[in-house]
Amino acid sequence: MLDPTLSRWLDAQAEALDLGQADPQSVLPQLAGAGLFGIGVPEARGGAGGSLLDAVEAIAAVAGHSLTAAFVFWGQRAFIEYLLQSPNRELGERLLGELLDGRLAGATGLSNAMKFLSGIESLQVKASPAADDGWSLDGRLPWVTNLRKGHFVVAAAIEREGAAPLVAAIPSGSAGLSRSDDLRLLGLQSSNTAALDFSAVQLPREWLLHDDARRYLPQVRPAFLGLQCAMTIGLTRRALEAVREHLGGSRSVLREEEERLRGELQALVERLRAGLASGEFGSEPARLFRIRIGLAEGAAAAVQLELQASGGKAYLSQHGAAFARRWRESAFVPIVTPSLVQLRAELQRQEARA
Q1: Looking at the domain assignment, is residue 329 inside a domain?
Q2: Residue 308 belongs to what H/E stretch?
Q3: Which of 66, 105, 127, 181 is the most buried (most CB within 10 A)?
Q4: What is the CATH number of the domain that holds 338?
Q5: pLDDT tens across 129-162, in order?
Q6: What is the average pLDDT across 115-119?
Q7: End-to-end CA distance of the chain
Q8: What integer best gives the mean pLDDT of the chain?
Q9: Is the dihedral of CA 23, 29, 35, 39 positive or negative?
Q10: Are 124 and 112 spatial neighbours (Cβ–Cβ below 8 Å)?
Q11: Which structural domain, as residue segments, surrounds residue 347?
């Protein structure tokens, strides 16, 4: 599915991207050059057509080579989806061209918002009225990905006193908006992940994505999580491929486990695709939460099985670098927002109310 040139680049750079030894600025142009950001975007909006399911498969394909690149892809494609689902069509007309060709980085700063939606934490950016019917923003987003230095736009949910919280896009050139140095991560280091501080940032109304976060966030959450699940799908597929490569034609005691995990993965992917296609996750988010949990558990099991299949060789740095990277990548899956702990807590709350 992926362009062969991109596949080769991802394989050659995967380790460096994970460890922060590759230029973070290089990822977005490579993905854009392969036409990936337009997948699932209507042709009338400048995209390649297709559906969100096609975008899920594209992110999964990238994740099989590099979770760092897939993480950037997810951030960019999620932001594009916010524009596609926003009633502010004029904003989309202004931004989509640069997002689709990779000149502009789209950062999904809605992790805090998704936790807010589940009652886990309050919104971290506050708005007060400003001139010309706009707002002045103050606060902090401690962890945002795809903040490409110099030219990005970030989505954030913003608290307002006496009114519904809003969701807006904030351009990197805004006065009072400051980006931290890249966060020091265990992996995925070349993903342009940093913190953002807002100090009296002026937000004109034309940058509004939606004036009611409580209506908009449930609307975009299936795409947010569905595209995020794609990263785990791709990682798990690659780990299971590695298991088969190690086992070869032998009738190992591990083959039955590999086949079981492969079957469970396919069942979860089919449930994800069906739910995204039908729209049922909008009214039944718990079904999507359970799929996300199942995929994360499957990824951990697949990487553990890869270790067993490769044996002691996986612990030798000259042989096990790809496995070690997937091990680090799999450690990220349970904690990316919404984390498995947060999802399980939300499911418990829903069951208690039932």
Answers
A1: yes
A2: helix 285-310
A3: 66
A4: 1.20.140.10
A5: 998 889 999 999 999 999 999 899 999 999 999 9
A6: 81
A7: 43
A8: 94
A9: positive
A10: yes
A11: 214-353
